[in-house]
């Protein structure tokens, strides 16, 4: 069992997932978001090759309206 | 034509996307404004509600996106936000804004200069939002900023060109485009900024909070165009003593 913190919400994963699989499981549209793993921005081309680890902090950001 | 970092803009009106009553109204207002550079912000998505797809319609509209670093309280956070925006949007352009003060949203000059230096070194096209400080604007120019964005008055206040005297100094000295940002509340404010020789203005609240944002966007477009044309035509000199415009021959008495 793996405990992660996704946008500050604790989540348990039954098995290790890649960052990309995690986004898919959460139904998060991937083309318009950026992903931060333990305070480091992860380039999109690496999402499928990086697995979530226990106690990882993962943050997903999207564009919103602003001035 | 206005050129920033080698990119030409036909429109000198930049617009924000915040505070509109709906995304549709925002998109139609941007279209009416003819703006080609549009600011956006970033936020952690709400996992329960997901994220509205703002990007697809904005990209369809053909505008260049200028992500801001709003929410950053210091240089470190702003640099992180810029890196995030570059990854998300594939753009080097960033509106650097660091305003830790929640009441007046005054930009932090020290943190902004530090962040600008690092971001320029990392290849970003940096457009910093700053107080109308001529010395700071020169320093930002020296570290490689593509433009400077001095405030007219505090964000969202619609007070107009409170900083006019200092804006004039910045325009006089700047070798990069000067974009007047924040506080422009009426088309006449925008026209006045352009008459002073500003290269562009950035307007958000005044359009978004209007009862008719689309109409207001068109008004701002016209005002910016008119102000720029007046600047290029050359305004007359301001004098304290009256100078007659008709012959003073005294013919009624002669």
UniProtKB/TrEMBL annotation, chain A:
InterPro entries membership: Beta-grasp_dom_sf, Mopterin_synth/thiamin_S_b, Thi_S, ThiS/MoaD-like
Pfam families: ThiS (PF02597)
Lineage top rank: taxon: Bacteria
Protein name: Sulfur carrier protein ThiS
Lineage per the UniProt record: Bacteria, Pseudomonadati, Pseudomonadota, Gammaproteobacteria, Alteromonadales
